[in-house]
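TICKET #2291
ISSUE: user wants both folds in one file
ATTACHMENT 1:
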Amino acid sequence: MFNYTIRRLLFAIPTLLVISFLIFAILDLAPNDPTGNLPLTISPEVREKIRISLGLGEPFPIRYLKWLQQFFINEPLNIIEQWFGISIGDSENRLRVQSWATRSPVVDLIVERMPQTLWVVGLSYVVGILIAVPIGVISAYKQYSIFDQIGTFISMIGFSVPTFFTGLVMIVLFSSTLGWLPSIYDTTHKVTDLASFWVQFKQMVMPVMVLALFNASQLSRFMRASMLDNLSQDYVRTARAKGLKERVVVLVHVLRNSLIPVVTVIALGIPQIFGGAIITEQIFRVNGLGQLLIIGIQGADIPLVQTLTFIFAVLIVFFNLIADVLYGMLDPRIRYE
């Protein structure tokens, strides 16, 4: 398992390099101009000086290599210096990936917005898994029952209806009509006591549940299908014939094998929820990574969009590796040596 993990990590390096080149090339060569939003009274000479100051006066290969150096070398060194107080090299003159709009380091902007996204998106995914796994197990064990039919119907609706519609319905129902929950997420709110925690809880309910229900609808169907496939296997009949309790057969043997394909969906779905949360963050005004990406796209802030997009790609490769490693933990028949 250890050798397999090392090989996969080594294989991920050229994969990420190819992905980084494609992302950088597509966004850098797109027909956009960072000076396009400037007033028309600014002369072409001044516009050209602004483009040069943004690093656009150099050839494409040079810009790409500088971006690689800034992202893979300079930014990690800066994080090490900020977190651990260890200074490596000339930190004052170290070039960093800077936003064209704010002239601030992109990584600092991402770190500033990350807690809000993790609170909402991360918690929603955990809640979605906790909802999906029991529903999938019970639906498969009680196939064609009333519980299974209701669960299937709700899952189809939850997976088919987009999150922006669900979010608007929740705002109209629980905020405008009943007045129970706030419609706007206050990212400046700090939890200091029980009362402030209750305020934080109320403002997190709607965005978390919108994403949780969407994720649970998909995961529960995968869980149900995997459970049905394993319930008909020979080893289940053998376990029952040996006199094992039904709870042990279902929750230990069947559930463990059924989680193998579901782990892939769960692991690979983690990066996708960051992209899916963009709309939800816009609806509830959550000042997270999704809103930051929208601002970068609207303002043609190419360095910001490049960095955020590449971070999402890194998450996909990383969690794909985690899913493969978890295979061996869940199924001892799998060997990677």
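ATTACHMENT 2:
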Amino acid sequence: MSFFIGRDRQARRAYGFDEIALVPGDLTINPDEVDTKLLIGPIKLEIPFLASAMDGVVDVAFAIAMGKQGGLGVLNLDGVNTRYDNPREVLNQIAQASPEEATALVQEIYQKPVKKELIARRVSEIKAAKVPCAVSTIPQNADEFGPIAAGAGCDIFFVQSTVATVRHQAKKYAPFDIGAFCKKMKIPVVVGNCVTYSVASELMDTGVSGLLIGVGPGAACTTRGVLGLGVPQVTATVDCAAARDYYYKRTGRYVPIITDGGMSSGGDICKAIACGADGVMVGSAFARSKEAPGQGFHWGMATPHQNLPRGTRIQVGVTGSLEEILYGPSRLDDGSQNLVGALRTCMGSIGTSSIREMQAAEIIIAPAIRTEGKIFQRTQRIGMGK
């Protein structure tokens, strides 16, 4: 539904996670008996959780740990892990910088060129642990880095930009051809990010194996403030899920969509999947793990941009191990731990036994869902009042 925002100018109402709620079902299911698997091409994940390709979240050790827990950690090929032989020293500098120094320091650190030999080395290090390997790069580097990563044994290749489209126009350089790249690569290619039905439809027609949904919702991202771009994640996910479903009906090929960013709790993750997501890509929640390389700090992929940084370093703290964040036991009351347990419990409570079934859950508009009856939590700044 559209509303007039001024004379002869209409705008569509869009929704975020805090404005909706899921309705309990007429049937309930034992949470231990629901199916949470995610399939990306031939790669099957036991849980639909991906860790964001951000240097404060994923390095080789974290990718291995995430893989052993049943999820997928995506390594950023444009980051410090492929620019420096010993990225831990660089990460220590970023963690120790003051808030005033952080952005300039990150910009300086990321000026060092990527070493192509480190791409193959990092992929080989992850594969040596016998877990799926996923890497990410910007479109400008995909044609060069893709074959190197695939040759080293990479399982899934992500191509990420602030806004991804099939029809990119440029006179000063040759636009990245997503369709040609997908045909060239012998492994699944996931592309992002997008937020609209039309763009999602066009991207699926290129042969991608998955889509990342979301522009600017991440905790460390400032795109919405710098550029004014973005669509709240509920509406973005619903629209792109509709494109996926129509594409599947038209072609018989199912392309999973992955809601990327903006989810700070287990409840947000449950809502994303109920809105149509097949999986979720999470950054800040995993940046809080003991295994994360950021040491309690987290920064966006566009933070190092030389001309227009669209991210900032934020302090998220270290709250527990990766296993605790994924599977518990939860030691916090804010929904940031035991994320898999939260998803399973929600699926059981609304009576859905699989991710695909959960995508059809009843959703209501509920702007009071976070505040109704929570006066003591709000005044004491605990639980949902933090």
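RESOLUTION: both attachments delivered.
EXTRA DETAIL ON ATTACHMENT 2: The longest strand covers residues 189-194.
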